[in-house]
Write a structure and sequence with these properties.
Order of helices and strands: HHHHHHHH
Protein name: Gamma-secretase subunit APH-1
Low-confidence stretches: none
Number of helices: 8
Function: Potential subunit of the gamma-secretase complex, an endoprotease complex that catalyzes the intramembrane cleavage of integral proteins such as Notch receptors.
Subunit structure: Component of the gamma-secretase complex.
Shape: globular
GO cellular component, one term: gamma-secretase complex
Largest sheet: none
Membrane topology: Multi-pass membrane protein
Distance between the termini: 25 Å
Length: 232
């Protein structure tokens, strides 16, 4: 369902496709930089010190989250400049795409690239060696990982809307809320293999972020009711 966001809301608009690809590229660069720093830290440390290695893993995850949000801010600044250019080139003095639409498409771009890498990791694990659950561990690894991938794609979409709204209206607490939610979801992965400890909080945060993003985008209870009842 998450990848349907692209097919039904973005695929027919060339400008939205460009914004989505650029957003995916920004997320990819943030992952590359954070992975490079984590790799250097691991190589420079003692591999036999399990406590240190676990601490470096936690540091890597938290640093990656902060770097992703920093690149989301840089992408917002870039798109803001792009809107000014589009307005200057247009005949009617209006931009062909609003900042709210850009926020949504940019969030989908971040989410789809995040989901693609999660799928690659799953496929790599599926190749072996070994069998999931053979030593009594949970056999729900692949199923829960798929649900986690989906929730991260949706969360990145909602976070994009919230983050851009906070930047646009200088509501820095909204930006801080996005960073805290991102840290909380990423940190919950350390509860695994107790998958309930990561999935349940992540889906609760997704529901809260979805409602928040819907309201900030101009949505209302009346509009939602009319949509569900298929009324114009």
């Amino acid at each position: 369902p998450a990848f349907g966001l692209f097919l039904f809301t973005i695929a027919r608009d060339p400008l939205r496709i460009i914004i989505l690809i650029a957003g995916a590229f920004f997320w990819l660069v943030s992952l590359l930089l954070s992975s490079l720093i984590w790799f250097i830290a691991v190589k420079a440390s003692d591999p036999r010190d399990e406590r240190l290695q676990k601490g470096l893993l936690i540091f890597g995850v938290m640093f990656s989250v902060l770097l992703q949000e920093a690149f989301r801010f840089l992408y917002y600044k870039l798109l803001r400049k792009a809107i000014e250019g589009l307005v200057a080139l247009s005949e009617d003095g209006c931009s062909p795409i609003s900042i709210q639409q850009m926020a949504y498409v940019a969030g989908v771009g971040f989410g789809l690239m995040s989901g693609a890498f999660s799928m690659i990791n799953l496929l790599a694990d599926a190749l072996g060696p070994g069998t999931v659950g053979i030593h009594g561990d949970s056999q729900l690894y692949f199923l829960t990982s798929a649900f986690m991938t989906m929730v991260l794609i949706f969360l990145h979409t909602f976070w994009g809307i919230l983050f851009f709204h906070g930047c646009e209206h200088r509501r820095w607490w909204e930006i801080a809320a996005v960073v805290v939610m991102h840290l909380a979801v990423s940190g919950s992965s350390f509860c695994n293999p107790l998958y309930v400890g990561s999935l349940v909080p992540s889906y609760l945060l997704m529901a809260a972020a979805a409602v928040w993003a819907y309201l900030l985008s101009g949505g209302s209870v009346q509009n939602l009711r009319r949509f569900l009842l298929c009324k114009c």
